[in-house]
């Protein structure tokens, strides 16, 4: 695997994992009973995006390493 292909695969995997990780641990304003006027009751109270970005990166590194290992073993 060339490095540009590797970067493209990692980037694609990262976004897919991000969308899988986004809903974890999110509490809505409705669930917390703390409404901000003018916002949707389903809006998150504290989404914790930096934590999710770090988890996404860690999970993607593990998945990419596994994929890289499988590809390297075939050649």
Would you kindly provide a written description of the structure presented here, covering whatever features stand out?
The chain contains three helices and no strands. The protein has 75 residues and is an all-alpha fold. The longest helix is centred in the last third of the chain and has 26 residues, at 49-74. It has helices at residues 3-21, 29-32, 49-74.
Q: How many distinct domains?
A: 1
Number of helices: 3
Looking at how many chains there are and whether they match, the oligomeric state comes to: single chain
Profile the largest sheet: none
Overall mean confidence score, pLDDT: 92
Describe the secondary-structure layout.
Layout: H1 3-21, H2 29-32, H3 49-74
Helix pairs in contact: 1-3
Summed up:
65% of the residues lie in helices and 0% in strands.
Structural descriptors:
75 residues; 3 helices; mainly alpha
